[in-house]
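Issue 218. Parser rejects a valid record. Input:
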Amino acid sequence: METFAKLIHKSYVTYLPTRLPVQFYGLPNGKVYVIYARFFEVGFEKSGIEYVFGIQEEFFYDYENEKLYQSNDNHKTKVIYLEDVDKPNPRIRIDKVHRGLNSFGEAFNLLNKNAQQLKEKITKENHKIINLPKEDNKLMSV
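Output the parser choked on:
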């Protein structure tokens, strides 16, 4: 299986409200995704682990060059240490919460499929921009 979601950082001790590992991934659309697990309790003696997928809104990921940037208002500054993505008081928007997953491997596979679809969509959009209609190609070859 080809990897489309690129691992930026993995932490076992984090600023997020969990005692379980946290993983940060860069996606083709430039967003930084966070996957972390947390315990949940539904009722009496009914608990489990849910996997949270969130978007770290303070960072931008240059997918092609594999570089991480911090977004400050309207400008971007390059992050020197990838560990900086795990910082105090992060602005994370929760995208989805999955209770049916059994491991971080399954969570990664789900994110990787999403990243593959994003990459294919971006590639198609770029291909449409580059290719001109056939009539315009005739004009350019004269």
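Fixed in the parser; the record now loads. The beta strands are 6-11, 22-26, 32-43, 46-56, 59-62, 67-72, 75-78, 92-98.
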